[in-house]
Design goal:
The protein is an all-alpha fold. 51% of the residues lie in helices and 0% in strands. The relative contact order is 0.12. It binds flavin-adenine dinucleotide.
């Protein structure tokens, strides 16, 4: 295989020609740069204190390290040691620990990550489940500016913020009652950091098949952590399924 290229455009053209099957899911190429140099530059910039204070906001100081960790360009031990040299690192190290935990569970159960680990903790009011991801969700045509925005970012850049992953997973599983495996496959197809351990077990945590209760959110929560950027321009602003209290949502969705 060719290893040296005059430009990024040349590299992209080469990969497209050599791996035409990669174009089945879209032609967009992420701006994320691969390789050790890019990873080290990003690691230097990580600010655990700003991370701890802002990580739940879409505009927060998240690290973007996951693709490098996923593909072994950086090790978990190395990023942890680096964090420990900086102030207020507990939250960040805690998140690295989640990754470590999911990975250890995966090491024990392997393909078992595709099966419900436990019974779901609540029963939906309407039990009808869908095995496939509906086209309106996968093609960003739900009319919900938030969900469509998340999918567009995922399919064009290979990235989705952690909080957006949680909202999206919750919407797909609990509001639309799609089997979590369908959404997990969709994520693994597009995420640059796609990894069956963190991905599937996080989906199971949202679904409550590997967690104490279903993860739910409401519009107030989403609006706060997105600085209202989706709700302001949403065609379904008046018919928002999330514009309710947690109690109302709970009653509407679950028995
Ligand atoms: C439904 C769902 C699916 C997910 N799928 C994946 C996946 O396929 N691959 C993946 O690497 N992560 C996954 N995550 C975890 C997390 O969302 C990503 O690791 C994170 O958003 C990647 O962006 P970042 O590097 O900027 O993370 P940051 O927010 O900057 O976090 C720093 C690092 O901590 C680790 N981390 C943070 N949050 C988590 C978490 N909840 N679980 C495990 N590790 C975490 C990651 O290694 C991440 O790079 C998923 C989470 C959810 C809710």
């Amino acid at each position: 295989m060719k290893r040296d290229f005059g430009s990024r455009a040349e590299l992209v053209a080469y990969v497209k020609a050599e791996f035409p099957e990669s174009l089945v899911h879209g032609e967009e190429v992420s701006e994320t740069r691969g390789g050790r140099k890019a990873a080290e530059a990003l690691l230097e910039k990580v600010n655990p204190d700003r991370y701890a204070r802002s990580r739940n906001f879409l505009s927060g100081a998240v690290t973007r390290l996951a693709p490098y960790l996923r593909h072994g360009v950086l090790s978990l031990g190395e990023v942890r040691r680096k964090a420990l040299t900086k102030p207020n690192h507990e939250k960040l190290v805690n998140e690295y620990a989640w990754r470590d935990y999911w990975r250890r569970v995966y090491g024990q159960i392997g393909e078992g990550v595709w099966k419900d680990r436990e019974e779901a903790k609540r029963r939906w009011r309407e039990q009808r489940e869908t095995a496939e991801l509906p086209a309106d969700i996968a093609e960003a045509r739900t009319g919900l500016a938030c969900m469509d925005g998340f999918v567009t970012e995922l399919t064009t850049t290979g990235y989705m913020h952690n909080h957006a992953r949680m909202w999206f997973a919750s919407y797909v599983i609990h509001w639309r009652r799609v089997r979590w495996q369908a959404a997990a496959k969709f994520f693994l197809t597009h995420l640059l950091d796609g990894d069956p351990a963190s991905n599937n077990l996080s989906f199971q945590w949202v679904a409550s098949t590997f967690g104490a209760k279903p993860y739910l959110f409401n519009r107030e929560n989403l609006e706060k952590y997105t600085d209202g950027k989706f709700c302001r321009k949403c065609a379904r602003e008046k018919d928002c399924p999330f514009a309710k209290s947690y109690e109302q949502i709970d009653q509407e969705l679950f028995q």
